[in-house]
Amino acid sequence: MTRMTTKQAHEQIASRCIIPGSLGVWERYFIQLVSAWGQMPEAIRPLHLIFGADNGIVKAGHIGYSADITKLMARVMMKGGTAATRYAIFNQIPYEVIDVGINSESPVGRDAKFQKGSDNFLEGPAMSQEAFDYVWQQARDVIDDAITGGANLISFGEMGIGNTTTSAAVLTVLTGESMESTVGPGSGADAETLAKKKKIISDGILLHMDTMFQNACSKPLEVLRCVGGFDLVALTSAMIACAEKEIPFIIDGFITAVALVAASRVTRDVLAFGIPSHISREPGMIVALNDCGFEPEDVTIHGQMALGEGTGAVLMVQLLKTTYDAFVTMTSFEDMMRAE
Question: Could you tell me the pTM of the whole model?
């Protein structure tokens, strides 16, 4: 099969009976999708993936929710009762919950965990190298299976109490930005709790500084291992796997945006396949988006959302499905003139 080029994707839009540029960013994302695939399939075949994991940093005592919430919410996801899964079901988007580190005796969803949650990064690395490598490979296997199952667009979500702390820590190290820009309230911290959260992140970074920077080539992966979480590891690995398989993907909010930053530090090629969905309330969201080359006007949903699960990503899938179908099926100028 001859690979479809970016130029041909532009020509497809130009041939339709619309004013060039009138559909704004949707034209850009159509071109990105077609360029990623190298062809123009009849339809988008999406799959929404939700990676769940507990984070040992909750032991620092700054989180206002019980750690059991991750397990309980994941179980409700399996039954289709959370916001993102209701969005997915309503819009007929298949989804899968992947347990990459939930603190439960039995797996919740697809079993891809090495252990029941990461460790407290104030006491040592968030995970061992063995645990990191295991989850990294499991995430790649998830993407392989998704593609084998026919998916040509992946959207990402996550669930894990404490993961705004791990994500802010990773983002701070990778970008070098101040914590005033990278650390936010997460699930709703007051000023005192937010200050404690920043100190926890600062202390964690200082504790692991030498390890995270001892090898420039492994820096982003060491940052994930030392102060990240299993959900971040899985998301980063899955995004890189998508890029290698030439499958476009949609990020959700803050946590997935940080994973994209980490993935882009491993290979910049991943940015050609990532599509943003919404701007989360977390201040670090803008830092992460800017680091990946996205301007606020590139992001279609400005809904002040901060839930996670992939709520914004699922909405973006449906919007892309709608506009992609229009670009493929709408009448061409040539057919319109012929009809006269």
Answer: 0.95
